[in-house]
Amino acid sequence: MTIWEDTVGQGLARLASYGALFDKAAEAGALADTFQDKLNRAKAALAGKGTALIVLTNGPKISAYGAGGRFGWLHSALDLPEAVPSVEQSTHGEAISFEFIREVNPDIILAIDRLAAVGQDGDSAQATLDNALVRETKAWKTGSVIYLSSAPIYIAGGGIQSMNVTLDEILASMSDK
């Protein structure tokens, strides 16, 4: 049931399949409708807010992901412009530096903490990104660094509940912007 491409489309298709399989099509349809409403509200909340950079921290290491990458649905489904359209499109992202983040100067940073997702000890995404270079970005200065719950997006990507958690976090972080 792994989803690699078209996370939202495949996730909703799987939801419908599960609904049919377990004779709960109405419940699955209601979940899909709720998700679509939330997706539309998140798109509206992000509209005109600028570019975004999706980063995955792994202790002190960081990678960037673009629209064609593992977390690319955040760009495509939310109509969220990429801060760097040329980010390598791979499963594990493109290794980047703090200088890269400062130079790109995204309006929004969507941060995912791999160590938290897999239950390992080490520097959190908050600790890793809290440094002089990242603090110079528009995202940091406007409070638009969004730390996403890691397990839902990293481990359970494409599941209806995980996508809902991610959208809830984005909506909560953008409510005061």
Rounded to an integer, what's the Rg over CA atoms? 16 Å
How many domains? The number is 1
The CATH superfamily is: Nitrogenase molybdenum iron protein domain
- Per CATH, what is the topology? Rossmann fold
Distance between the termini: 36 Å
Shape: globular
Strand content: 5-15%
Low-pLDDT parts are: none
Q: Tell me, what is the CATH class?
A: Alpha Beta
Order of helices and strands: HHEEHEHEHHHEHH
What CATH architecture would you give? 3-Layer(aba) Sandwich
**Fraction of residues in H or I helices:** 40-55%
Q: Total number of β-strand segments?
A: 5
Q: Which structural class is indicated by helix and strand composition?
A: alpha/beta
What about the largest sheet? Answer: 5 strands, mixed
**Physical arrangement of strands within the biggest beta sheet:** 3-2-1-4-5
The number of helical runs is 9
Let me know the average pLDDT.
92
Describe the protein:
The structure is a single chain. The mean pLDDT is 92. A hairpin with a 2-residue loop joins strand 1 and strand 2 (61-65). With 177 residues, the protein is an alpha/beta fold. It contains nine helices and five strands; from the N terminus they run H-H-E-E-H-E-H-E-H-H-H-E-H-H. It is globular, with a radius of gyration of 16 Å. The protein has one domain: Nitrogenase molybdenum iron protein domain (Rossmann fold), CATH 3.40.50. The longest helix has 22 residues, at 25-46.
